[in-house]
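[Q] Does anyone have a clean structure-token version of this?
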Amino acid sequence: MRKIFAIVILLSLAACQKDDTIQYFNVTMGNFTDGKFISDQGNIFNITEKTCNDRTDTLKRAIVMCDILTKRGENSYDVRLNEVTPVFTKSPVDSTAVTDSAVFVENPLNIGELWISGGYINMYIVIPMKVSSTQAHLINLMLDDEASSDGVYRYTLKHNAYGEVPSSGDTDFVLGGTYVSFPVSGKFNEEKATIHISWTSLKSDEYGWSTETEKNTLQHEWARGGFEQSIQ
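[A] Here you go.
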């Protein structure tokens, strides 16, 4: 409640002072390039102010929250950077190139969001992990070459938990989330394509997530030209 009150006061003061900010709390995904942030929409954000201590010189892809201050050109803006969420980026794997199939298993995970933008398949992935664990989990998006054909692409989301898979009665697991982007620019040569994405997830129940699993598949009719296409 105190945070809401503080925001109201802040906006009220800004209005009284005739703040020239174009837009507050703009949230967008994109890439840092040569000190600038290029959003998936193609907008160029010049970071002229910061209210956070997040480093951007070591990041490539991220979600940023910023205030747009000044328009400098058709797609160029000066912004005040408020928050940065790093996005993990990993190229999809072709099934025919896999030499160790034991690594690419389907331990359960859940997908909170799934969309295509900026030449990437983007996801917010939620995985079960042991409390205080330092075990790294392996996430891959695998293209099934043999099941795919011109205009049809079949992907499977692979998750190797390296033994951290909850079973009935476990009480030492928590759910952790992360954003992941898989670059697919240049993979789809057609003007239109059908994209299938399959994965194994934890079932939900009245208490939240159960330890039982189920198979999921989403089908998306992709068309070239749109900056963002929501899948889920």
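[Q] Thanks! Anything notable?
[A] The mean pLDDT is 86.
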